[in-house]
């Protein structure tokens, strides 16, 4: 089953994580764009309007929670589904839900589980 060319923005400050998820998503038919910070993720989301955003919560500068909050309160990006990811699941999950993320996944996340979650959001 492919990603049908849907565009996924992968925002994570760790290059290996961005590469892993981008490779896995591209391999299953999704198109990807990446961001290394919350600021970059906001700019990419506004400019490219991806179908889904995968947002790490712990990033320098504007963190993932604040980036999600900004995306969900902007008329241009508010309807883009956001999957929040974090290794610190308890406090970060509450913060991400408060920022109105659509799903939360604990890191490390197996790429196939992330792909399935994205497909569910796009269905």
Which features would summarize this protein structure in a list?
46% helix, alpha/beta, 20% strand, 123 residues, Rossmann fold, 5 strands, 5-stranded parallel β-sheet
Characterise the protein shown here.
The chain is an alpha/beta fold and 123 residues long. The protein has one domain: Response regulator (Rossmann fold). 46% of the residues lie in helices and 20% in strands. A five-stranded parallel β-sheet has the order 2-1-3-4-5, sandwiched between helices. Helix 4 links the parallel strand 4 (82-86) and strand 5. The longest helix has 13 residues, at 15-27. The protein is globular. It starts with 6 loop residues before the first strand and ends with a helix. 35% of the residues are buried. The model has no long low-confidence stretch (mean pLDDT 93).
- Count of individual domains: 1
From the helix content, strand content and strand pairing, which structural class follows?
alpha/beta
Q: How many H/I helical runs?
A: 5
- Helix-residue proportion: 40-55%
Read across the widest sheet, the strand sequence of neighbours is: 2-1-3-4-5
List segments where confidence is low: pLDDT < 50 over at least 5 consecutive residues.
none
| SSE arrangement, N to C | EHEHEHEHEH
Quantity of strands, as a count: 5
Rg value: 13 Å
Strand percentage: 15-25%
The CATH architecture name reads: 3-Layer(aba) Sandwich
Shape: globular
